[in-house]
Amino acid sequence: MTTAATDRRSGVSGWSGRAIAGLVLTIFVFFFLIPVVWLLLATTKSARGLIVGAPFAPGRPGDLATNWHQLFSFQDGAVTTWIGNSAMYAVGALVITLVASIPAGYAVALTEFRFRRTLLVLTLIVMLIPNTALVLPIFLELNSVGLIGSPLSVILPLSFFPFGVYLTYIYFSTSIPRDLLAAARIDGCSELQVFTRVALPLAAPIVALVAFFSFVQSWNNFYLPFVMLPSSDGYPIQVGLTSLLASTPAFNPSSAGGQSVQLPTLALATVISVLPVLIVFLFAQRFLVAGMTAGGTKE
């Protein structure tokens, strides 16, 4: 009798715990989902419909086309230029990041050299420093060599990615059999051949993970391009959004005029600015999952 009562209490307790957890998760889902749904629906409305209409009522395709035309005609197609600049900065930084961080992580993980542990500790320390704290010294350094205002003033700092080095170090330390690398050396491979022909093909998941994080960081970076680029012609889309915001009468009443931007157009610009990251994530999610779970077990 006591055992049966205990089982009933345990069942009720387990059911109550699952119900509470489900309720909390549902609240969080709605908390984060509602703004996204509102933002997507706002792109399909007119300026008046966004204010006086129902918040979650869909708009009309004609209003979406009008918002699209207004967005891409802003300052003679500045938005197209900003998107192209973002792609150039993100892809350029991504290439340099992969070329530098993957071999660096491999070297720290699988080769013995002087000050190896010191280099790893310095990598961890740099990871803890906020990126904004480094903008001023980087600005002074690049200004001394005359790179301010050029694409390199954004690409080079963004390609400095110690987190990618650390991720690669973790992967090569735990997921690559050292006996396999030793066998390649016995067969006559040089260290470069061991890395390019054996280790690198096995590291495809972590390469994809580092590439994704680097791309997202570069695409979403605002403060660095804002400081380094004095002209709007070189802005990425994240910095360009501030120009759109300043031209929206709802936020800046003095901007009312021929080049003013309405709230639905600003919402459309926000959605477009995050689409590349979403598309990259959808196409790369299989590799991202493999990269995140890699290194979870010791050889």
TrEMBL record:
Organism superkingdom: Bacteria
GO biological process, one term: transmembrane transport
InterPro entries (UniProt xref): MetI-like, MetI-like_sf
Main location as per UniProt: membrane
Annotated PROSITE patterns: ABC_TM1
GO CC annotations, alphabetized: plasma membrane
Membrane-topology annotation of the record: Multi-pass membrane protein
Record's subcellular location: Cell membrane
Residue intervals passing through the bilayer: 20-41, 87-107, 119-140, 152-173, 194-215, 263-284
PANTHER family linked to this entry: ABC TRANSPORTER PERMEASE PROTEIN MG189-RELATED, ABC TRANSPORTER PERMEASE PROTEIN MG189-RELATED-RELATED
Family: Belongs to the binding-protein-dependent transport system permease family.
Protein name: Sugar ABC transporter permease
Organism: Paractinoplanes ferrugineus
